[in-house]
Amino acid sequence: PFCGSNSFYVNMKDKKRKSRTIPAGFWDCFSCGLGGNQFSFLRELVRESRKNTTKSDYRKLSKERGISTSTLQRTGLGKSVLTGLWLIPAYNKDGGVSNVYVYTESGEVKSSTNCSHQLMGSHKFEPGKPVWVSEGIWDWLAWDEVTRKVGGDGANVLGCPGANVFKKQWIKYFHEQDV
Predict the structure, then answer these.
(1) Res 146: pLDDT
(2) Among 125, 159, 157, which Cα is nearest to 144's?
(3) What percent of the chain has pLDDT over 90?
(4) For residues 119 and 160, what is the distance between their CA atoms, to the nearest angstrom?
(5) Across 148-153, average pLDDT
(6) What does the pLDDT read at residue 64?
(7) How many CA atoms lie within 13 A of 23 on its CB side?
(8) Kind plus residue range of the DSSP H or E element containing 90
(9) How far apart are CA 165 and CA 147, in angstroms?
(10) Quick one: pLDDT at residue 171?
(11) 127-145 in b/e burial notation, b at 16+ Cβ within 10 A?
(12) What is the pLDDT of residue 24?
């Protein structure tokens, strides 16, 4: 899906390729040489999808969701090169893609299989700054946009991706903070 060839494989068992071993569950492309685990696949999928998302695509989603095109682009959304559905990347504390939520045609937002939920915006968390918390990815995007417009870009805007997914480990973001 990344170089346009039909040489993409997911290895069901360890394979030797030249001087390297490609573990079971890893993917690789015989044509362009890209490969890796599920997270490198998600990262490449987001990168390629963002690159191929048009201004018209962003304008349409902006109108539908009431969120500016600049916010949609800044937070990494892109239209999947595989399915045509919107991808909403979630990042780990180091800024790496650790999950990709998919905005389905029925209007649901679903997590990628075998990926854990992420507290949206936590990769940019800065201790000591006020913390705003919202429930749901669209509310998180909207609140992030609003706080920036009113000069609140000095705040942490975090979004729990949905009801009943809040994790105990996320509590650290609220300890001794103005929430």
Answers:
(1) 93
(2) 157
(3) 69
(4) 5
(5) 80
(6) 96
(7) 4
(8) strand 86-91
(9) 24
(10) 93
(11) eeeebbbbebbeebbbbbb
(12) 83
The letter for the amino acid at 38 is Q
- pLDDT score, position 152: 66
The 109-110 sheet, strands edge to edge: 78-79, 86-91, 97-103, 109-110
Alpha-helix runs per DSSP H in 25-176: 38-52, 55-65, 69-74, 137-149
Quick count: other Cβ atoms within 10 Å of Cβ 151? 8
Number of Cβ within a 10 Å radius of residue 110: 13
**What is the 3-state secondary structure of 9-31?**
EECCCCEEECCEEECCCCEEECC
How far, in Å, CA of 164 to CA of 162, rounded?
A: 6
Question: Do residues 49 and 2 lie in contact, with contact meaning Cβ atoms separated by under 8 Å?
Answer: no
Q: State yes or no: pLDDT of 178 exceeds 80.
A: yes
**Pairing assessment for the beta strands 20-22 and 15-17 based on DSSP bridges:** antiparallel
pLDDT in tens, 28-65: 887 888 888 899 999 999 999 999 999 999 999 999 99
CA dihedral (24, 27, 32, 33) in degrees, to 10, reads -40
Which among 152, 156, 160, 159 is positioned nearest to 130, based on CA atoms? 156
